[in-house]
Amino acid sequence: MSPAVFLAVLSAAAMHASWNALVKAHPDRFLSVTQLTLGMAAMALVAAPFVAFPGAEVWPWILASVFFHAGYKLCLIGAYKAGDLAQTYPLARGTAPLLAAIGGIFVVSEVPTPSAVFGILLLSAGTLVMSLRGGGHLKKLNRHAVGFALATSLFIASYTLSDGSGARLAATASSYAVWLFISDAVASLALYAVLRGPSALPVLGQGWKGGLVAGLLSGGAYWIVMWAMTKAPIAAVASLRETSILFAMMISVFALGEKMTGWRGAAALSIIAGVVALRMG
């Protein structure tokens, strides 16, 4: 992985943690996530005239990703309702790289190097420790939060592989990202109308500035990730992206008032060691 790709993915990780904190802090997380998706689409519509329209071979990947993203959002909302950001976010993100690495072997025939495998394992171990012990003792785990978080990780691994494959097949990563964001917004708007009723649609206009900011952070972060997956192995990019957990930890402690513990410090060191191993690989 080149230094440029490495630094770009790290910046995407910081952006990703930021928008997750905005969603977690919102009183209506389903509304917040829908507004975020519309914000991403607004950014994509501005860019649409300047990118190629995807060919027929790319659309199955986009449609699959829209489905996976819908499941991801619903499970993420459920996780945030049931548990703290410091517990649910690491668990959801921490298991996804392992799943993506295993899936990548079969979907895109990418076998990670020994150094990359070591880095992925360190990153995943650190994120799991931060989730399972970072917020307290195991006996205090919220099973509902853990269940939602693990389901979220399955959807993350699924859309990571579909988007990595689709972005490589498209004319450019930007073309894929733009039309994915637009398609995802259409699906999210329909889902919101079905679950909340058509009469709730005007509510989407309330607090639209926050949704736009979160959408720009989310869209920018994920565009960087999709571009990176055209330049480096999918599993390595997916794992490095999970350094967002370090940023989420800092946000949870300094902005949301959650506790800093020795377990979180140890988990952070494991994540940093994993980042170093990935960079060396």
What is the number of helical segments per DSSP (H or I, 4+ residues)?
Answer: 12
Kindly state the number of beta strands: 0
Q: What value does the average pLDDT take? A: 83
**Which stretches of 5+ consecutive residues score pLDDT under 50?**
none
Q: N-to-C SSE series? A: HHHHHHHHHHHH
Helix content: over 70%
Radius of gyration of CA atoms, rounded to a whole number: 18 Å
Dominant shape: globular
Percent in strands:
under 5%
Derived structural class: mainly alpha
The major pleated sheet works out as: none
Q: Distance N terminus to C terminus?
A: 7 Å
Short summary:
With 281 residues, the chain is mainly α. It contains twelve helices and no strands. Helix 3 crosses helix 8.
Q: What does this 3D model show about the protein?
A:
- With 281 residues, this protein is mainly α.
- The chain has twelve helices and no strands.
- The protein has helices at residues 3-25, 29-47, 59-82, 85-94, 96-107, 114-132, 143-169, 173-196, 208-229, 234-241, 244-254, 262-280.
- Helix 4 packs antiparallel against helix 6 and helix 8 crosses helix 9 (208-229).
- The model has no long low-confidence stretch (mean pLDDT 83).
Element layout with pairings:
Layout: H1 3-25, H2 29-47, H3 59-82, H4 85-94, H5 96-107, H6 114-132, H7 143-169, H8 173-196, H9 208-229, H10 234-241, H11 244-254, H12 262-280
Helix pairs in contact: 1-9, 1-11, 2-8, 2-9, 3-7, 3-8, 4-6, 4-7, 4-11, 5-7, 5-10, 6-10, 6-12, 7-8, 8-9
